[in-house]
Amino acid sequence: MKLLFSLGLLCCLVLLNGCVSTTSKSARLEPQEAALVSKVEQYPNDSLALRELVEYQLQLFDESPDFELFSRLEKNLLKGLEIAPSERFFAYHYYVINLKLAFVEGRYEQKKWQAFYQQHPFLATLDLAPPVYVDYLLKEPTGSEKVAILQQSLRTNPFFMNAYLELARHYYTEDKTALATYLMMAARRHNEESVEVLSDLVHYRTTQLSEAMCHADIRESVPAVLEDARTLTRMVPDEAFFQSQLAEVFRLNRQYPLAIFAAAKAAELDKSYTDYLLELYLWDTRLDKVMAFTGDAAQQRDVMYVLPKVYASIAALNWQEAAKQASLYSQLEDAEPYGVLYGAYSYGIMGNTAEREKLLKLLDSTISMSDWHRNMLAFARGSIDEAQLMAVADDRCKQSEALFVAALQHFENHQTEKANTYWQQIIDLGVMNYFEFGTARNRVKALKKAAQ
Description:
Elements: H1 7-18, H2 31-42, H3 47-63, H4 67-83, H5 88-105, H6 110-119, H7 131-139, H8 143-156, H9 161-173, H10 177-190, H11 195-212, H12 222-235, H13 240-252, H14 256-269, H15 274-283, H16 287-292, H17 297-300, H18 303-315, H19 319-330, H20 337-349, H21 353-365, H22 371-380, H23 386-392, H24 396-412, H25 416-420, H26 422-429, H27 435-451
Protein name: DUF4034 domain-containing protein
InterPro entries: TPR-like_helical_dom_sf
Organism: Alteromonas lipolytica
């Protein structure tokens, strides 16, 4: 059980708290509850009779929280602890309802409940918040204090999944993906049934692969992540995000038809994933699918839909269309340097130097660029040569981009044969989820077909 209450339940609990002073102390019981109360009164030391009453009251409380009912329930749970101290049922539910009460009152006697927690060690073997975690929820600490509380929560109860999830997400936001992955793998050892843990694990491991492929060949590391992603979709087959995660790992494993299948499933479940499916069509060398997509007015001005068309046009050597799409892309919010730079080259290849320079100036003035982007821009303007660009491309990711822009420059200089030698080099670098890789796959396929 996870101690994360829905907004609806919290609202009910707040209402419960607001009714404290107005609820009658002699609330009339429902016939079934009255009958169970009568049975308990008849057999005061019968823990089974008391348990039946508590189970019914818990059901009522879940359906309609009420302070008078809460008081009766708490009283009966305390009685259960007295007459059957070894029965976990009473200890568990007494602990849980008081966790809920803490959110209503906004305070929690941590020392009292820590003592209770230690008296009932089985609580630390359940997916249930330890007392220290309640402080985390009530106080909303940040930074080192947040980390310390979450770490203490895990030391107190290594079976409590929310602490793993929260701490891992904190590390992930600090770019400590390896730590986040380690935590999720530890969580999986304690609970293989947690969908949320497995989803986060797949996400972190996929992120690690994407980071690692800039420095090394990752192909041997992909199958283990792929198995986790498959397991996740078997557990919850109708979750679009999980299908998109599977599609991404298939892409990293160079299984493009399967990536398309999973991405299509995601888009079928949730139309917001259509852009991702469109992107993967490029990798599967189905350029017609990319270019034929029209979409609605919003999609036509969305970078996630326009950018694949820039690359698909380059892959088809359709420089006019590439330039057109890049010009549109350059005016959109969230446009990044690559689509604009490659569009400038498309204009240059057609001999339109004015539009080429216009897009290059746009890069300088309105689009945020890193030092690496500025090196690529310097290359496009002739300030540095290809050897100098490759010298500052200090990882595989940058090298793939450098080779791509160098290929475009050779096209611009009417050196088509030279340009065509770069595509396989880009593929060999193994930066599988970069658009440059997807475009290079199309060019290699086209060249092989032409050579037959």
